[in-house]
Amino acid sequence: MDASAVFLPGSAGFVADPYPAYAELRAAGRVHHYAPTGQWLVPHHADVSALLRDRRLGRSYQHRFSHEEFGRPAPPAAHEPFHTLNDHGMLDLEPPDHTRIRRLVSQAFTPRTVERLAPTVRRLAARLVDDFRAAGGGDLIAAVAEPLPVAVIAEMLGIPEADRPLLRPWSAAICGMYELNPDEDTATRAVTASLEFSVYLRELIAERRKDPGEDLISALIAAYEDGSGASGDRLDQRDRLDRLSEQEMVSTCVLLLNAGHEATVNTTANGWWALLRNPAQLAALRAAPDALLPTAIEELMRYDTPLQLFERWVLEDIEFAGRALPRGSEVALLFGSANRDPARFADPDTLDLTRADNPHISFGAGIHYCLGAPLARVELQASFGELIRKAPRLRLAAEPERRPGFVIRGLKELRVTC
Fold this sequence. Notes:
Layout: H1 12-16, H2 19-28, E1 32-34, E2 39-42, H3 45-52, E3 57-58, H4 67-70, H5 80-87, H6 97-106, H7 111-134, E4 137-139, H8 140-145, H9 147-157, H10 167-175, H11 184-210, H12 216-221, H13 237-240, H14 246-276, H15 279-287, H16 289-303, E5 309-314, E6 318-320, E7 323-325, E8 330-334, H17 335-338, H18 373-390, E9 395-396, E10 415-417
Parallel strand pairs: 2-8
Antiparallel strand pairs: 1-2, 3-5, 4-10, 5-8, 6-7, 9-10
């Protein structure tokens, strides 16, 4: 089939509801070439799950090939600040650098650490919801969905409270580059945000070097290295195993701040919009929040996935679903489609908060599985739980409008009354 006749990420109608188009793609086959971006679209759950774990594919190719060797053009020189920032974060690195950085950062996301954070998360959520209810409602995204995860990850990193309003605009500008074929205005905003965010973090890192604290930035500084010994010689591989360059530190902090709230904010917005359109499910959740919240959070992440597409580069010639995918190809894994695949989920277009068998892939899979997934679940259960219990009359005040992007799926605002 001609995928470009069905897959229309630039269309407002498609962005509003891509799920019928996904059903067409799944019915038509396992992989489809999409000419506008030159990518291969993969819509089925089993295939998406398998390719996320396939080491013949990678988030990057630069650990093995130059741009020229891989047959890809180098990014425009004007975009260099964004790519420097993005390409040194572990999400866009492959082993051994990915392994090294993830091992260091994972120490901040152990089950014990997340368990210790849970009371703080619940306290923050309670305060935000109390204020929201006292105001009679408003924009749920601006008042509750955004402040909670931003405050949590900023607290972990040691970002001063007065500086936290800077984070969301920088994040939004940078994440614009993850859409399909971003235009030059989007790139300009991302470059500006990358420069400003990097300068801010380097200054904060310098402060933490002088006055370390208990925060994650201070912990990363302890693993810092500038890539050379006192005489300028490169450190050997063994020494590098537990160290970070300053650029890796900066990129890691940006990744944690961006990924640490982007999916949580959009799951909250998409989830409440889904609940408000499914009053019987909302009523059931209100009737038994303690029993239903754990499965409800998983189902809301599945039902309207906050990250609709994730890309991988083909690092060596492979055959997939009867098609030859040469080295240099790019695969677009359709998370939103995979999470509605009837081959894996019974009645997938129905919101079922009791769904127990729910292997959604909203957090990814394989070595790039979301490191912050346990913390995100704590945050989501806290905010949904507080709103369910304290705002039993929460109602929609205005029809929401989708954000224009397709890859990162969210709402511009969600206005409700309490």
